[in-house]
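Researcher: We plan to redesign the surface later, but first we want a full-length starting point. Tokens attached.
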């Protein structure tokens, strides 16, 4: 019996008979069982899948040609042999033009493979993208997006209770204690 098809892995959504046929085939259903359940020949459905860019491999796996998942979880699509993130393509489609140079696409929920247009924010530069990430992390951890993390004690606090030194917020007591320890190590 063939292994069951993982819909998330291959980017399939069960919305058509051809996708259902592929899943049934991967689960080990015979051509007759597929025809009886879906009312169409497996080969007709297979032709439709192939026209959409899907390909069956010798090991029984079904894969969409030109689509892969990066190590970080981003969906990568090859267009004319050049890889491009699906999130970038979706953002460009929503804008109606290519992204400006230096811009980044932020995933609101933090899931790099969730490329729903409602989950994407186009950031004008990397600094704004980092700020969004920083505020999201603070909101998740301490409940206030305006709080900052002290690099010494690793606790979040109101920036009014902290020092700003070189672009980094830190508690005054933590900074003093850190400098004392550093001086002791030098001696």
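Model: Full-length starting sequence:
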């Amino acid at each position: 019996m063939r292994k069951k098809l993982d819909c998330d892995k291959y980017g399939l959504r069960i919305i058509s008979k051809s996708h259902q046929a592929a899943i049934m085939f991967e689960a080990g259903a015979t051509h007759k069982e597929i025809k009886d359940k879906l009312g169409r020949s497996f080969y007709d459905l297979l032709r439709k899948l192939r026209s959409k860019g899907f390909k069956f491999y010798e090991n029984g796996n079904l894969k969409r040609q030109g689509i892969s998942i990066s190590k970080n979880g981003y969906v990568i699509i090859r267009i004319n042999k050049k890889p491009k993130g699906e999130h970038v393509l979706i953002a460009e489609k929503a804008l109606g033009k290519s992204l400006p140079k230096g811009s980044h696409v932020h995933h609101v929920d933090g899931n790099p493979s969730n490329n729903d247009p409602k989950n994407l924010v186009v950031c004008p530069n990397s600094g704004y993208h980092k700020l969004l990430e920083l505020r999201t992390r603070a909101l998740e951890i301490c409940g206030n997006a305006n709080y900052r993390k002290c690099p010494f004690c690793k606790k979040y606090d109101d920036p009014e209770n902290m020092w700003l030194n070189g672009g980094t917020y830190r508690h005054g007591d933590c900074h003093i204690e850190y400098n004392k320890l550093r001086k002791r190590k030098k001696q």
